Amino acid sequence: MPKRYEMVANYIADQIYSGLLKTNERVLSVRQCANELGVSISTVIRGYELLQDRLLIESRPQSGFFVSQRFELPAAPEASTPEQRPVEVNLGQLALTIIKSSQNKQLIQLAVALPKIDVAAVAQLNKITAQIAREQCRANQSISVDNISEYDSPPGNELLRRKIAQRLLSGGVKVHPDEIVITVGCQEALVLSLNAVTKAGDTVAVESPNYYGMLQAIETLGLKALEIPTDAKTGISLSALELAIREWPITACVLAPSYSNPLGSCIPDSRKKKLAQMLEKADIALIEDDINADLTYANHRPRAIKSYDKTGNILLCSSLSKTLSPGLRLGWVVPGRWLERVQHLKLCNSGANASITTLAATRYLETGTFDRHLRQMRQYYKRQRDYFLQLAARHFPDDIRITYPQGGYILWIRLPQGVDGMALYESALEEKIAISPGTLFSVNQQYNDFIRINYGQENAQNLEKAAILLGRLMREMMVSD
Ligand SMILES: Cc1ncc(COP(=O)(O)O)c(C=O)c1O
User: Which pTM was predicted?
Assistant: First the structure.
């Protein structure tokens, strides 16, 4: 639960970020705010101090508090307009270079999609893992399903599958644990799903821009990607997808409908239903990447498209990587009518998951603390988003465009004219700041005027340092253009 003064700050901040209160407008007086929220004057004063620290409001002598003069939320980028034809994917080594650089502790890390898991959850998970190892030493069992030196086998630990089935209910998905296959992260779930529903040479429709891990999976399976226009708020264009279905022989469609990477878009529920029906009718399998849905800033996670699946046409993929620990490498897929095929592929691909992490995650989920931890994470990310947008408004050039995600921790930023994303990536790296160049998120290298940043990882001081430096580099590049 946020403290009372934080609630005051959030109450005013929400009005500013939603546009209800604009630059230079007067904020509620301390007394009015105290009456309106039923809190003490001193609580409001502390809340307003926090807002001043975040540079959202400023105090003007004899006049009260005002929305900071320099605050104006940057506009969102326009919907993408990719070249719509199936193409072979060839991303090269850039993704690997960036992922390797995420290990470099000297860098301010805004590049990779690493989550920030709160210390209490990490400590609890570590404790459980150590406990399991200790129990195993004492028991000295020879054969037991809970023995960490035994092989697990597809579909994976039953208790974990039961826990996942329970959690899926909040996305409107009702499945039996036996319909779930445990995987090595969401990445394996996506690769197994693609492998199950396609053969080399087939065409897969994808959102544009798209998570490079998905594009690489398409590349390694010898598939072609067909990029579809996508809006930063509402996700993939249904009309463009409908046209593409008429024009091209599409076998599968891959979507991250709830807080996509890098756009952060969320498809409205009514459209999710339509999408499920459209793809079902066209006999196109839908691979749904649900990995960020639990990181919503709303009270409840959005519905999964899978909740509208009547015939097993949707393969739902997710993991605990963004919500609990990427190092667990624990994911799952609900493969619908491809259940047997996916189990077979899992056996061929990695056999099974590591038993110790499976047991630790299962026991953690049994503690019942996961939802509380998620609520804290969501609030933290929302604050970080607001803070970084505020920094961007202050330090970046005026014609910047930035998404305004309602979940997750990723921003997609269109650079000012004349600034090249790759050049900015290289210059920022020399100054020890890691960002992702936009070119990584497309098969046609068309997002060179974009970058992606993770606002979740770093503390306020480092975010400010990065925003000042990125702003300066952008201005220098604009001048030298
Ligand atoms: C949208 C999306 N899907 C899937 C993955 C892969 O997740 P995992 O680490 O669970 O394999 C990522 C990781 O960044 C991602 O951003």
Answer: 0.88
